[in-house]
Amino acid sequence: MAPRARRADVTRHAEALPELTGVPQAYVNGGVPSRPSCRKGGNPAVSRVPLPPAALNRWLWARAARERRAGTGARSDLAGTEPAASACLGPGWSSGPARAPRWPHEGPPPPPSSLAWASRRPPDQELAFRQDGVGGGTRDAKPRPPPPPPRSAPGARPQAASCRAETMLRERAGAWAVLGPLLWGCGLALLQGGMLYPRESRSRERKELDGLWSFRADFSDNRRQGFEQQWYRAPLREVRALSGPTLDMPVPSSFNDVGQDGRLRSFVGWVWYEREATLPQRWTQDLGTRVVLRIGSAHYYAIVWVNGVHVAEHEGGHLPFEADISKLVQSGPLSSCRITIAINNTLSPYTLPPGTILYQTDTSKYPKGYFVQNTNFDFFNYAGLHRSVLLYTTPISYIDDITITTDVDQDIGLVNYQIFIQGSEHFQLEVFLLDADGRTVAQGTGGQGQLQVPRAHLWWPYLMHEHPAYLYSLEVRLTAQTADGPVSDFYTLPVGIRTVAVTESRFLINGKPFYFHGVNKHEDADIRGKGFDWPLLVKDFNLLRWLGANAFRTSHYPYAEELMQLCDRYGIVVIDESPGAGIALAQSLSNVSLQHHLEVMEEMVRRDKNHPAVVMWSVANEPASSLKPAGYYFKTLIAHTKALDPSRPVTFVTKSSYEADLGVPYVDVICVNSYYSWYHDYGHMEVIQLQLATQFENWYRTYQKPIIQSEYGAETIAGFHQDPPLMFSEEYQKGLLEQYHLVLDQKRKEYVVGELIWNFADFMTDQSPQRAIGNRKGIFTRQRQPKSAAFLLRERYWKLANETWHHQSAVKPQCVENSPFIF
Ligand code: GCB
Questions:
Q1: Transmembrane segments in this chain: where (predicted)?
Q2: Is the separation of the CB atoms in 741 and 796 below 8 Å?
Q3: Pocket of ligand 1 (CB under 6 A)
């Protein structure tokens, strides 16, 4: 995020857009292909078209997305939804063409000055891909059943207008919680293909490709030398290139901070990663083995080749993607393969998160072709291979996806499962539910069903029960008939039995009020940037538990899968947030952006749906939710997310005013950020109580929904002391938090259901006069050392924990006194 004042300016600018002819200068200069612009006085015929039923609209979106992936008819389908979408934007708003190119290299060639935009892969690549008939094995390529009939989304709110009606719906939260899991299958059908975490089993092996990769940033003027010289065709070190040296680059890691070259730190454009992988002989010779390449996270846009053949492309930096490379690695005598990944970190108004490129053309001030990447979010746009790259195997008939939802009836735990198989029409499935001691407690057969667990151990959050985070294991055994005989596949999934529900004023887990006392985090650390790191991960969990935190929000993008697994194991509750951060311009609320956002939610739900720790989806952080298109945007986005997963509430995090926000009518829980006495009334902590109480009262009076204070905090340089407190000192951070706590303590007795400090630790941001080497609102430093506020919060969180302990045994006072290292 840019400083507050600048963000407000951006929003004002966007609100003025309808009056403007064209798009902001930044894009005009950049020569980005013409974009849909929201203009006043849109086609009256268009705005008269009635809105089709929400369910139909959703289904059209889903079908369009499916067909686009399959390469059929996407344009016309989306065009079909267009009038409705335009109508929803409100009178006088037009949403532009159905599918403007979203990613720069889908559009016409850029002008010479637009260095950051590089073209799509050259035509010969397309040819090579098709001729080989291999690759393209992302999830989209997998054959799937025909699209489901239109269905309505249970739990979705009917219309923005009637908050009263919505409140009544909300009062039936119990019914919602029961219906949700039952209707889960409806949502399921929208997801295409699975993204199970690659686990080893009797039938599956995995080989991690972490370590040193060859790396080159394409510093050429147009950033396209890599494509022009086809760097994917031969080892990077063998291709003579004037556009930059070939370096050793650790994976996982961001590339920005590992070197000494300032140009690489702020590089925008294509970088190339490459490494050779040696494969076990069986993988290359046994045609009954499926070999899959999996990339945990490549920020932002990635193109992947294996032995020079294009196998996958993916947009979005925080979610995994895969390519089935079996045919490639099994087609010759080679026992190794060369993996090349080109990654572009350029953000546009249509990416998630969005960004803009600003081209400076005044040659008296800037060199020729000068440009910078601007964003409206407050974290550094680290890039590279941020999570593990690995190869894994399955048999050719395999368990592709598993979906679990759970419920509780008296003391019986209900585990609903649905399993998708690929590679065979004729198969048998057996499922076994094992308890923590490995004893089978329930079993079933077939692709879908319900397992019943008498006297079930429920999955409880940390500090809510003396045995939190109880996990069962679901063992799935597949026996499939193939042309070559029977094939078996085995997959084991951890399962937590728990329920989630929302009432008018409470957030319930297993029917008991749950109060979120936790943090907001970032994936961020010295040197590695956003690169996954086990020691850092374990340290963070130890700090969370020391602090007595029971929850965090994945601000502002989905975090690594390994971290989500630890949340399941430790009982740390998660609000799982999409990369929808910094949606500040009207363009970023267009149908083009919405379409991508819907797909991101599909990918995110598909990846994280089985984590008991995930109790709510957050579709965005601080969007410009008072702009006109926001109503339609969030209505559609939230309804779609609920259709994907009717078992969890959905929210987004707002900083708009309660009167102007057009998205909040659709959320289940109001998440509100405020920085009283930090971004306003600097230094005047005496106004916090009044302003915060007013904030809560306004929101609650308007919507009667539970509220989470999803961010609050103050910038603090560790070691700065001032008494009386002054801004940036440790005393000021503590004082500000204490003022917030006084109001939170009143309102949590009514309808406030959580408080999440901004931020767990200091983190890197873009440079600005308001950021002293990053954002310093952490209660821990970036190196995870406590500031004074950490001790204050620790005392508070343990106190809150003791108050909300739900087991029959008494509150355990030793919780507070215990050594921080005994859990
Ligand atoms: C916010 C944003 C967060 C920023 C924070 C701040 O509201 O959600 O991304 O880092 O404020 O410190 O300004």
A1: 173-197
A2: yes
A3: 1, 378, 556, 621-622, 655, 673, 711, 758, 775, 777
Q: What are phi and psi of 657, to 5 degrees?
A: -80, 155
Q: Please state, in angstroms and rounded to a whole number, the distance separating the CA atoms of residues 613 and 154.
A: 22
Structure tokens at 466: 């003396």
Q: Phi, psi (5° rounding) for residue 537?
A: -60, -45
- HSE-up of 228 (CA within 13 Å, CB side)? 12
Cα(369)–Cα(338) distance, rounded to whole angstroms?
A: 35
- Render pLDDT for 35-80 as a digit per residue (tens, 0 to 9): 222 222 222 222 222 222 233 333 333 433 443 343 332 222 212 2
Best mutation site among 380, 524, 709, 775 for ligand 1 pocket (most ligand atoms within 8 Å of CB):
775
Calculate the CA 296 to chain-centre distance.
13
Q: How far, in Å, CA of 672 to CA of 693, rounded?
A: 13
78 alpha carbon – ligand 1 mean position (Å): 35
- Other CB atoms within 10 A of residue 167 CB: 13
pTM of the model as a whole:
0.80
- pLDDT at residue 696 is higher than 50: yes
Question: Which residue has 């151990």 as its token pair?
Answer: 457
Of ligand 1's atoms, which has the minimum distance to the CA of residue 4? 13
Q: What is the DSSP string of 200-230?
A: -BTTB-EEE--EEEEEEE--STTS-HHHHTT
The pLDDT of residue 569 is 98
Edge to edge, what strands does the sheet with 412-422 contain? Answer: 398-409, 412-422, 448-453
> Comparing C-alpha atoms, which of 717, 718, 702 is closest to residue 670?
702
pLDDT band for position 807 (cuts 50, 70, 90): low
Strands 321-324 and 298-299: unpaired
| Strands (DSSP E) found in 376-437 | 384-385, 389-395, 398-409, 412-422, 427-434
Q: Of residues 121 and 494, which shows the higher confidence score?
A: 494
> Which phi and psi (to 5°) does residue 564 adopt?
-65, -35
Instruction: Give the helix/strand (H/E) hosting 392.
Output: strand 389-395
User: Per-residue confidence at 239, pLDDT binned at 50, 70, 90?
Assistant: confident
Report the alpha-carbon distance of residue 388 to residue 378 in Å, rounded: 25
- Indicate which residue's Cα is closest to atom 10 of ligand 1: 378
Give the pair of three-digit tokens for residue 795. Answer: 């005392």
DSSP H/E element including 315: strand 309-315
Which residues are annotated as catalytic?
622
What's the farthest any 2 CA atoms get from each other in the chain? 79
- Alpha helix segments (H runs only) across 704-804: 730-747, 788-803
Helix ranges (DSSP H) in 172-315? 173-182, 184-188, 225-228, 262-265, 281-285
What strand order describes the sheet that includes 321-324?
A: 206-208, 389-395, 289-295, 321-324
Please tell me the distance between residue 147's alpha carbon and the centre of ligand 1 in angstroms: 40
Q: Which residues contact 203 (CB under 8 A, 6 or more apart)?
A: 394, 395, 398, 488, 489, 490
The 10 Å Cβ neighbour count of residue 814 is 9
pLDDT score for 688: 98
Between CA 181 and CA 175 the distance in angstroms is 11
Q: At a CB cut-off of 8 Å and minimum separation 6, what does 759 contact? A: 519, 520, 521, 522, 555, 713, 775, 777, 778, 779
Query: Cα of 378 to ligand 1 centre, how many Å?
Result: 6
CA distances 62 to 143, 188, 210, 256, 635, Å, are: 16, 12, 35, 37, 15
Residue 712 Cα to ligand 1 midpoint, Å, equals: 9
CB atoms within 10 A of CB 309: 23
Query: pLDDT tens, 712-742?
Result: 999 999 999 999 999 999 999 999 999 999 9
Pseudo-torsion of CA 798, 800, 801, 807, nearest 10°? 140
SS3 at position 419: strand
Q: Number of helices (H) and strands (E), helices first, in the chain?
A: 21, 32
